[in-house]
Amino acid sequence: MALTPDDVVTKQFQHVRFKEGFDPDEVDDFLDEIVVEWRKTIAENEELKAKLAALESGESAAPAPVAAPVAEVPAAAPEAAPAADAGSPSAASAGIIELAQRLHDEHVAEGRAKRDQLISDAQAQAASIVSEAEARGRDEIARLEKERATLEGRISELRQFERDYRTQLRSYIEGHLRDLDASSTATGSAPVPAVGL
Questions:
Q1: Which tens digits make up the pLDDT trace of 86-114?
Q2: Burial of residue 162 (number of CB atoms within 10 Å: 0-12, 13-18, 19+)
Q3: Which residues pair with 22 in a beta bridge?
Q4: Is 91 exposed, middle or buried (0-12, 13-18, 19+ CB in 10 A)?
Q5: How distant, in Å, are the alpha carbons of 66, 68, 89, 136, 164 from that of 55?
Q6: Which burial class, exposed, middle or buried, applies to 50 when counting CB atoms under 10 A from its CB (0-12, 13-18, 19+)?
Q7: Where are the domains of the chain?
Q8: What's the Cα-to-Cα distance from 137 to each of 125, 130, 147, rounded to whole Å?
Q9: Which residues does 82 contact at the CB level (< 8 Å), separation at least 6?
Q10: In terms of Cα–Cα distance, which of 67, 109, 76, 68 is closest to 5?
Q11: Residue 22, SS3?
Q12: What angle do CA 20, 23, 24 make, to 5 degrees?
């Protein structure tokens, strides 16, 4: 396949499902085509240089005019590519290389922008998660402190109840002991009547 600068400019890659980007195999195949055409162009260039050197050494006549290389081929102007193709092979290869470099630079810049966007989104999401976790932690600590205060109040109430209960129980038992002592002393001093003597 004869590769032209138009082919490089208009090449469309299929998107891969389940991830962003292009199919790596398709991109590799297209780059292999560029390399093959580029090597052909370099070989033709070397051959033409050798013929030119042979002509110059064989006859001192003025050499055939050589087309000037194209300085810059805009990536968005595919109609400028046929003019570069009409010139020398070195101009065509320079145009192809320049377009490939420009496409590469655009993809790298796009990738860097996407990377920066993903990083900033991830940092924002991480900050949101951290602040949410801190807020939940503060709420949980406040709830536990409130529960602790409630439990400590209940414990002090139960201790007071225990003290009051012990005091009342002691008073009750001591009262019964006094009554028992009083009744035993009252019955112990009175004579026991003799029954049946």
A1: 456 677 777 788 888 888 999 999 999 99
A2: exposed
A3: 15
A4: buried
A5: 14, 20, 19, 86, 127
A6: exposed
A7: 5-55+71-135
A8: 18, 10, 15
A9: 4, 6
A10: 76
A11: strand
A12: 110
Question: For residue 180, what are the CA distances in angstroms to 4, 93, 134, 166, 184?
Answer: 125, 126, 68, 21, 6
Which tokens belong to 31? 């780059």
Q: What is the pLDDT of residues 30-64, one digit of tens each?
A: 888 888 888 888 888 889 998 888 888 875 444 44
| pTM exceeds 0.70 | no
Give the number of C-alpha atoms closer than 13 A to the C-alpha of residue 105, restricted to the C-beta side.
7
What single DSSP character describes residue 18? T
Say how far apart CA 119 and CA 113 lie, in whole Å.
10
- Cβ burial of 44 (10 Å; 0-12, 13-18, 19+) is middle
